[in-house]
Each structure stands twice: as C-alpha cells, then as structure tokens.
Amino acid sequence: MSTLDSWILQINDYFWTYLLIPLVAIAGLYFTVRSRAVQLRLLPEMFRIFKDKPTDGVSPFGAFSISAAARIGTGNIAGVATAITLGGPGAVFWMWVMAVVGGASSFVEVVLAQLYKARGNQPGTYRGGPAYYMERALGKRWLGMLFAALITVTFGFVLTAVQSNTIAVTAKGSLNGAGSAWFTPLLGVALAVLLALAVFYGVKRLAMITQVMVPLMAGIYLILGVGVVLLNATAVPQMLGDIIGGAFGIRELAGGAVGTAILQGVRRGMFSNEAGMGSAPNAAAAAETTHPVKQGLIQTLGVYFDTLVICTMTALVVLSANPSLTERGGADVTQSAFDTTLGGWAGHLLTLVVFLVAFSSMIGNYYYGESNIAFITKSRLVMHGYRGAILACTVLGAMGSLSIVWNLADITMGAMALVNLLAILPLSAIAFKLLDDYVAQRRAGLDPVFTRDRVPGLTGTECWEPTVSEKTPELPVPASPSEPR
C-alpha cells in the first residue's frame, strides 16, 4: 500500500511541477495584464458590491459564503503547516503571490460562470460553472461532461470523505485517543445526518447555513490566532523577515530551497484558495446579481480572504512555535503551536474550529457535485443516488485512513484546473468585454446592469435577456480597446 502511495505521489509531483504550475502562472499573468490588474484596481469596488440585495434568489454574499465554505477547509490549517515544514517560511510568500496573481484567474472564471449560467428548478435559483460555459461558449459538451465528472468525484466524494476523516481525527485527538471502537462510526453517522439536513433543504438553505458558519468559524480561528500572535508580538518582525528572506535569501538559493519554497507555496496556495481550478464558479453562478462582473469581483475578494488573512494567520501561529523543517507537517503542527502558547484548552477549541471548517466545506462540496450532476443528467434517480453516495462517503471517511485518497485528490484537482484553464484562456476576451462594460457604467455614475445585447454577437446565454425597463439607450457603451480609458 505504501508503494502505491509513493507512486501516486511521484506522479502528482511531476504533474504539478512541470505542467500545472507553469500553466497557472502564465494564465494568471496574462489575465492580470489584459485586465489591467483588475484584482487590485477594483479592490474598493469589491467591498461596495456586498451591499447588493437579491430580489428572490441567492445574494452575492450568499454565493460568496458557499464558495468560501468549500475554500476555507483543512488546507488552511494543515496545508499551511505542511508548506512551511517542507518549503520553509519562504513558502508563505509564494502563497501570497499565488493569491494576487490567481485573483485575476478567479475573476475571469466567475464572470464566465455568471454569464453562461442556467435557471434552476425553483424561481430565483441558478446553476452554472465551467461545465456550462464549456458547452455554451466553446460548444464542447464532451469537455463539460469531463469537467463535471472530475469535480463531482473530487469534491462530492473524495474531499467530503477527507473532511469527515479530519473531523474524526481531531475529535479523537481531543480525547487523547481514548475513544471506543464505536466512536468513529457513530460520529460518521452523526455527520451524515447533519449533512442530510442541509442537503435536502436546497441551495437557498445552504446559503443561509454557510452565511452563519463561515463568519463564525473564521472569527473563532482568527481570535485564537490573534491571541497567539499578540503573545509572540516581539517575534513577528523576525517571522516576517524569515518569510521574505526564505523566498529570496542567498542561503536558500544556494541550497536549492527556493525552488522547494516556490513549489510548496504555489501548490498549497492553489489547494487553499482554488483560484483557476473551476470550483468556486459553481457557487458563484448561483448568485442573483445585475452584472456578471459584480460576482467576479466578490469571488476575487474571497481568494484574498482565504490566503492573505486565514493562511497568513496560520503561518504566523506555526512560525511562532519554531517548527522543525524536517517533518511533513499537518494539522498536528498547528495544534501543537496553539497548545504551546495558549495551553491545552486551545487544542480542544481548535477541534471545534476544525469541525466548523470541515463541515462547511462538506456543504460547499455537496453543492459543487449537485450542480454538475444536474449538468450531466436531469434524472432525479441519479441525483438521489448522488446524495446517498455522498452521505455514505461521509460515514466511511470518518472510519478510514485516507493518505492515498488525499494524493488522488491532488491529481483530480489538478486535472480540474488543467481542463478549466485551457477553457477560460480563449474565453477570457468575453470576460474582458464585460469588464469594460461594467467600468463604463460605473464611470457614468450608474449601478451597472448587464443584458446580452450589450455585447454584440454574444450567444449561448440564457439568463441575461433585456426586460422593457432595461432597454435604456442612455446606458454608456464600453470603450473599445483602442480608446483611452
């Protein structure tokens, strides 16, 4: 079994190092240049849009919460520790770089998901994501089917089992391994029941649940983290120096550690914020908004929140404990840092945080799979089968050991990103036309409203037909690329 695990891990390393990471960097830089750094230029606009209210469906903040629920997972707690113990403190800097550059990729994929979304079964609900724009914009349903299958397996089954397992491991850790043989099966069943309650109430109820859980879990974790940082305040300048020095230091360069820092930082950054992977657009498409660019900006803010806030806090906590750079790291490194500074009670509270983090990820993961199952087939029997399977994965995940599954998840997530990036590179020109339209309307003092007739020749859309009230010739026409802006 260990030989199989090593073989999968080796394939995974080659795949990410020589194919995926270069593609992610090239795509992110291209989108940044073409959009004139939209992820930085329109940062104030991202906060303004949070005030938008839906008339009936999921609000922009609700869709943001669903995607944040899936983004903010155990990778923020365990993944950051692993990046530091394998790549040194400099890996954190490259996680920051990945967030800023990846913000442009996230913007493009989410704008496209909003533009090509489909109406749901209930009024005011929508479905969408990479599978939908691959079919409607590229005309390649087979590619959309491939992506839909990849994301359903990765998020719906594999990562749901991983999150369930993480909850079980931390819970047993709080009991010092004293749980009975029936503890993990019973916990798995309890988690499946809780997930079923969320699943069978639909996407609007999912948004309501995650709007409460995401701020709660982030708040508790940040309070713990701030406590650790304040108690180690005198060491913060040294920790920041280690992060910058580890990214560019002569000693690290001579030892070849800079390459490891870049690899671990970019890889764990992608795993954490999912920018460009094609997962967040599935939740973003569910939002009811007046312009696709609005949701693109909000989801870009989600990338920053995940990496620049949550992951940075974890990094400072881990570095405050001066971890050994020879171990493989994980949640136990982070938990040990809390225990060392705050005492044993902090480890128990972290177990609660892990539960909130992992369970909210399970909710987001479920929705990603549901949206893509609906793309593949309209059969209610298949949908019920999917729901039963994801609940079974929840129970089995709590009982199993998932080292191999984690490595397989890395491969399937990488495959998702590969397919998605190859699709959005040619489609990005459409996203930039919508960005020009949005900026033109804002400069005219308007709250931007998009209809498909705003972009001549646009086809494949379903939800952006103009109403009588929206057929207003006074709306400004976006400037052409050759005109000054």
Question: In words, what does this structure look like?
Answer:
The protein has a two-stranded antiparallel sheet. Helix 4 runs parallel beside helix 15 (292-320), helix 5 (74-87) packs antiparallel against helix 13 and helix 8 crosses helix 9 (183-199). The chain has helices spanning 2-34, 38-41, 43-49, 60-71, 74-87, 90-115, 130-136, 141-174, 183-199, 203-231, 236-248, 250-254, 257-273, 280-284, 292-320, 331-342, 344-376, 380-399, 403-443, and strands at 118-119, 126-127. The chain is globular and about 60 Å long. It contains 19 helices and 2 strands. 74% of the residues lie in helices and 1% in strands. The protein starts with a helix and ends in a 42-residue tail after the last helix. It has 485 residues and is mainly α. It has a single domain (19-436), classed as Amino acid/polyamine transporter I.
Question: Which secondary structure elements does this structure contain, and how are they paired or packed?
Answer:
Layout: H1 2-34, H2 38-41, H3 43-49, H4 60-71, H5 74-87, H6 90-115, E1 118-119, E2 126-127, H7 130-136, H8 141-174, H9 183-199, H10 203-231, H11 236-248, H12 250-254, H13 257-273, H14 280-284, H15 292-320, H16 331-342, H17 344-376, H18 380-399, H19 403-443
Antiparallel strand pairs: 1-2
